[in-house]
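Technical appendix A lists one of the benchmark inputs used to test multi-chain prediction within the project. The record comprises two sequence entries:
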Amino acid sequence: MNAASKNVVICQGPGSLKNDAGTQTGTITLTPKKLIFAPSKQGDPNITISCSRICGLFASKAGQSGPGKLRVHHQKEGQPEEKVLLSFNNPQDVENFKTRLSEIAAQNKEKKAAQEAAAAAPAASTSEPQGPGASSLRIATAQRPPPTRNELRKSILMRDAELARLHADLVMNGHITEAEFWEGREHLVLAEAASESQRRGKPSVIVDPRPVRDESGNAVMKLTPAMIEELFDEFPVLRKAYDENVPKPLSDAEFWKRYLQSKLASRNRASARGAASEHTVKDDPVFDKYLEKEDDDIEPRRQLDMHVPKTVDLYATAEDHPETGNTQDVTMQAGKQRQALPLIRRFNEHSERVLNAALGDQEHPAKRRRIDSEVAGESSDGIPLQVNDQLRFLDIRSSDDAMATDGPEEANPNALLPDMVRSLDSWATDMSKISMERKSVEEAVLKMTSNIKSRLDVRIRRDELPHELLAEMTSLQTATSEFLRQFWSAIEPPPPEQGILSASSPEQRQARAEKMVGYLGKTQEKVNVIVQKARSAGVDGNKVIQAFHHTLSSVNTALQAHKTRRS
Amino acid sequence: MCDLKRTLDASGHCVLEMPSGTGKTVSLLALIISYQQFHPTKRKLIYCSRTVPEIEKALSELKRLMAYRIKVAQEDGDREQTLKEQAYSGLGLTSRKNLCLHPEVSKEKKGRVVDARCRDMTNSGVIERAKVDPDHNPTCSFHDELGLLEPGNLIPQGIHTLADVIDYGRKKGLCPYFTVRRMVRYIMPFVDIIIYSFHYLLDPKVAEQVSKEMSKDAIVVFDEAHNIDNVCIESLSIDLTRPMLDSAARSVTRLGDKIEECVLLSIKQKDASKLQDEYAKLVEGLQEAEDAVPIEDDVFMPNPVLPEDLLKEAIPGNIRKAEHFVAFLKRFVEYLKTRMRVLHVVAETPLSFLQHLKDITYIERRPLRFCTERLQSLVRTLELNRLDEIAALQKVASFATLVATYEKGFLLILEPFETEGATIPNPIFHLTCLDPSIAIRPVFERFSSVVITSGTISPLDMYPKMLQFTPVVQESYPMTLTRNCFLPLVITRGSDQVAISSRFEVRNDPAVVRNFGSILIEYSKIVPDGLVGFFPSYLYMESIVAAWNDMGILNEVWKNKLIFVETPDANETSIALENYRRACDNGRGAVLLAVARGKVSEGIDFDHNYGRAVIMFGIPYQYTESRILKARLEYLRDAYRIREAEFLGFDAMRNAAQCVGRALRGKTDWGLMVFADKRFARADKRSKLPRWINQYITDAASNLSTDMALVMSKLFMRTISQNPNENQTGISLWTLENVQAHQAKMKAVAAEATVQRPAAAPQQGDEMDTDVDMDMGTDDDDYGDGGIPDEVMAAADLAAGPGTLVHAQ
């Protein structure tokens, strides 16, 4: 008996499930709370999808040969969408499941839309009733709660495979604690938090459905749900038209078909030619109702009520003195190209909308950041950037800092540069007068070639190491460096600005240092083990010893330091 | 600095070109204020700028400069000096529209309506009547409140920006506009510096009201003066259109009705009517009538003619009677309407116009000249409200007065069609002033020191020639930079090697349009934050934006940045600008497309992240088919020996330089300047660019294709965006030691020169003497033109961060 049968079963039927892991056959059951797949093969775990997570359903066309198929999209809060493909042996089941699941999906969509609408309520105009199909595509402008530290760490590990491996080796195996592992890596967490806290804005490209030719040469326009949503945002009148005409008297598909052929569409097109070719478009009784006057007057139709600071207020200048002088010549009269004006206005409005989607409606300009520090001494935090190659960047910065703290005399590159330039300016050597001794040249060339040769040898020889051995060596190497890092960071005083994140007391740090010394002390043994292995695999053990030479010497330095500290 | 001081000492005029973004404003202010504070005579400073944003900026810089001076004086423990510094006051003046606080009036959209409604509530007649019958004579409480205060004590001493004055007015319930006006008018001895726009000094209509009280020894500074000739010309030119004439005719009829009403009323009441009083006054003479005006709040309608051209005699008899005058106006308007019916272009001199007028309508020149005066007097007598409604009539009157006053330097052009191809007549009657020196002459004559300065005023000798004055000093300063913080590039061809140009014949060629587009796309990819593109004209911008959109070029740009475009409406454009800045602050980045000579190119800064690159698409030549321009060119050639091509090139390049110069506003700032036109590669074009830009255009960068320019730009950005060593001294920022060392050197040179040319010695000696005791900041640079005092430097540094100050080498 199935575990699910204890609950109320809405419908059930044999079939198969296909997900990322592969295809399995078994029984599919739908209960009020869950969609359960029980594989027929004993021992395999049941796959359950909570109904509240189902966000989309796609069905194969009815009447097709073969088993009926349903694709279920489900999504956990804040995670990417996943999908499973359900195939049913019995066509009857398909219909049952389809109706039930589509109800659930629709409910979920509404709920989500309601949540988002509530969150986006201050953004006003967009929260009017929405047509079906539109709601799930709303761009989430709601502020999510800031992710916890663990979530941040997790996402870092998900992205950085190497770090994840090290984490698995050391933390999962209990060598060091989670906190210890992250100590000294605070910048990663901070950067992740910064990138998490940044809201993703809308894509800025203006949606402009343009016809493409298909194979048979017909012009086809494709509208994706995302585009439809954009169109609704862009043209509130279109949303109004949709609300008033769908499903009656027009169906969804019909609506769009007629819209794309209407004057309204040709006017809404982001094209200056749209208006020019308007007379070629047929009249449409439905859409022509919604035609508005072209916004091509010198003054815009839209009400403008944004607060503009004096420093960019062009209007104030225009009003500052009486109109005098002759009118401008034709080329300098703004707005002469009437058909370009609606287009230009659309650009400005679209940009503003994109901006508002990311920033919220206008914030007070006084609060904004000014780079040129109009009030000296008042510095701002700036906007944290998401820099891909963080380490490199941080290295550069810290070296800059180091330079800044040095005496300005010796380490200021700007001060040094003129000197160098001067010395280079006066540097003049007549190349033709240079003559070299034959012997020394030969010697030098010989040295260089031998150097290159030895390097080449090393490279060739390295390839001889068997794969497993190499992997083992790498893992030991990284683990040891991590231990070393931990050790030194435990000994050194913590950097002041990271004090909040690494809140470990001196005792803890002492204990940690001890622990690390313990690990480090074993390094020699481990190396020996690998050397043994290498020898048994028929590889020169000296190579391994050589490879670990530097690691071991730094381990020894660490151990030495520890000893002297204790004594 | 010392050039400026020499000018002030010599009481002469000067032309100075200082690179933009180097603290031009603050260094000018610093010197002049020191000069003012040191000399007991306290010459006033009239500081003119182009736009309200620039006025506001200058005021806030001034405010911080004074805060610094007060601080230094306090630190020195010099109480007297401290008090002196604290007493220094400065104000900015702008229109009613910008300052109004009245709950209803301030909501009016048009400045002219605000002016009219404000006058209706604040003129002395209304106030008198309101005392009797407050319900039917609304007054403005903000203005009333002001009347209760002692003039001269309206606002505390110190520097107030426009925003400050508005805030203060709001707090105290005072009208900001009249606060400033009265402060300036009654107690000019207490206001040391006034900042307003060019028009307030150059346009006789405004200058009459505002600038009459300024004392003769005041120092006048025209900042951002590269367009000063255009402002001069504008202030004396007038256009009439048919709708305007229709409206004027209606106003005349209304005036007639009103007069009749008035006459009837006086018959009924059987006493002397107001009109008769007026007539009597007019017989006595104009001047007396003028004197009868009590307060400046009552000035209704200013005269468009310059003060010295005003006739100091009584209004001619045939228009003294109100009825006669109205009939006179009617005839004149009818005559103009008839002229408008002509379907071919007419260009004539004022003299021939007057002759024709006389032949047809028997209107003489003399009464025509008094048209404005007479209308003004009539309006005042009738106590008309809502002056904005008779604005067209006022314009016609101004037209009449101007055309009858000036014989030379003006031209009348009637254009029946707007464009060549148009078929529906839309006639415009231009009265165009061709000679910029007419409007500015009184300024040069009245004020002893006039300083004309801008970042882009090359070639320098052009301005004295056009404006007809003799400068004591004319100088262009190069820029000394600790690092090359801008990179000018000349792109002459696209990556496909097709030459790009905004020349009329090729500008709409798809290859050129595409190449311009690809420049925008590529730069939108590599430039962080803000990117500004300028076009030569609105027409071109609008057509090219449409073309780019259809070619899919803008879709590419959308992927990288948001796009904002200048629109015909100033308010709308301001909002687009504000959003553009938000996008730059946010890091999203944006492209702003605007027009050279347009609204945005004047006075809006694209500093720092607001403009990391400026692209000039084409050369901003004027439309050479314009008849007005042609007439002007002809006049310049005949009167001043300035060749047409020379003037056109000069005019285009000063505008181009002005556009790209907007990106650089301080020593920590950096930006790319891209000139995209093959004609920029020519030496004669580039030589017209200001020296400070031109010296950085290397040979390698003067003839690039798009891809090469991109490589250079990337390289530049990589090096420039490193942390600047902001307060490095010794190169552009000098310490006191540097200055002293330089002075010692210059002294040695001077001593040598003295030995060689003994004649030169006394003068130099004199200069030294005058300087020795000057107070802080200005006492140390007289020889050569090197040093800028350390204190001033520090002030500049504090003030705007544009510490890369200018010093000639």
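Chain A touches chain B through 70 residues (CB under 8 Å). The first helix of chain A runs from residue 91 to 119. Comparable benchmark entries are summarised in Table A2.
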